[in-house]
Amino acid sequence: MQRVAPRATARRIPVRQHPRYRRSPERPSACNGPSVITGPPGPEAIEALQPDPVDELIVRPRARGLIHLVSAVVAVVAGAALVEVAWTGSASSRAGWAALIYVAAIIAMFGVSAAYHRVRWTSPSAEKWMMRLDHSVIFVFIAATYTPFAVLALPPDTGTKALTIVWTGAAAGVALKMLWPSAPRWVGVPLYLMLGYVALLFAEALLIGAGFTVVALLAAGAVLYNIGAIFYGVRWPNPWPNTFAHHEFFHAFTVAAAVCHFAAIWLVIR
């Protein structure tokens, strides 16, 4: 009787390290936790790549979306205080509406991000639309961050120009994310940064109208946003893929930057 050689023992390897792994362009970039498959490399891998009810589950880092979830709660409390200060100030009407727009945007950004990243979406269609909304609301938040400065710290004509530029850019960004959600990162990330760099056009006027401390806080926030954007674009660092991956670093830097800009807005409004 012919002796049959025993089959090689299957070993578990990260799916992204498997030679037959290919990223689907339709998979939202936020769902980038490492999945796991079983099977040895080589021809036997074809069988190992067959659907498996356990291995098909995407393993997100445990902290995915947690930073923005906590930030959304904090934004509600801090935002309420900011709006109250704005409405009771000397320029209550203009300051109040500007603060309200900003607070609504920051709560929306952190809230949508937390929902998108924390919820296990069972409907691919719902997940796709949440991804679009998550990416779109960032543009709205950037424009909303400009609003208190344009209304309160810049001369009326200059402020109107700034608002026109940033809200037009935000509308274009939302259209991009809604109509072309699979656009490569080298298209989307620069648009976020370009909208942020609009502040350079009004830096001198901001320095005169808001003061050095406010401008320094804006600059610090801009640096943090840029570092976070770089981490998002290159998917690095990624030290603990199952717990705190590169996307968590991106989220952490966005929160730190938002804190700097919140402080700057508080100084302008109070």
Automatic annotation (TrEMBL):
<keyword id="KW-1003">Cell membrane</keyword>
<feature type="transmembrane region" description="Helical">
    <location>
        <begin position="66"/>
        <end position="89"/>
    </location>
</feature>
<keyword id="KW-0472">Membrane</keyword>
<feature type="transmembrane region" description="Helical">
    <location>
        <begin position="192"/>
        <end position="225"/>
    </location>
</feature>
<comment type="similarity">
    <text>Belongs to the UPF0073 (Hly-III) family.</text>
</comment>
<keyword id="KW-0862">Zinc</keyword>
<feature type="binding site">
    <location>
        <position position="117"/>
    </location>
    <ligand>
        <name>Zn(2+)</name>
    </ligand>
</feature>
<dbReference type="GO" id="GO:0005886">
    <property type="term" value="C:plasma membrane"/>
</dbReference>
<keyword id="KW-1133">Transmembrane helix</keyword>
<dbReference type="GO" id="GO:0046872">
    <property type="term" value="F:metal ion binding"/>
</dbReference>
<dbReference type="InterPro" id="IPR004254">
    <property type="entry name" value="AdipoR/HlyIII-related"/>
</dbReference>
<dbReference type="InterPro" id="IPR005744">
    <property type="entry name" value="Hy-lIII"/>
</dbReference>
<feature type="binding site">
    <location>
        <position position="251"/>
    </location>
    <ligand>
        <name>Zn(2+)</name>
    </ligand>
</feature>
<feature type="transmembrane region" description="Helical">
    <location>
        <begin position="95"/>
        <end position="116"/>
    </location>
</feature>
<keyword id="KW-0479">Metal-binding</keyword>
<feature type="binding site">
    <location>
        <position position="247"/>
    </location>
    <ligand>
        <name>Zn(2+)</name>
    </ligand>
</feature>
<keyword id="KW-0812">Transmembrane</keyword>
<feature type="transmembrane region" description="Helical">
    <location>
        <begin position="249"/>
        <end position="269"/>
    </location>
</feature>
<dbReference type="GO" id="GO:0140911">
    <property type="term" value="F:pore-forming activity"/>
</dbReference>
<dbReference type="Pfam" id="PF03006">
    <property type="entry name" value="HlyIII"/>
</dbReference>
<feature type="region of interest" description="Disordered">
    <location>
        <begin position="1"/>
        <end position="36"/>
    </location>
</feature>
<feature type="compositionally biased region" description="Basic residues">
    <location>
        <begin position="9"/>
        <end position="22"/>
    </location>
</feature>
<feature type="transmembrane region" description="Helical">
    <location>
        <begin position="137"/>
        <end position="156"/>
    </location>
</feature>
<protein>
    <submittedName>
        <fullName>Channel protein, hemolysin III family</fullName>
    </submittedName>
</protein>
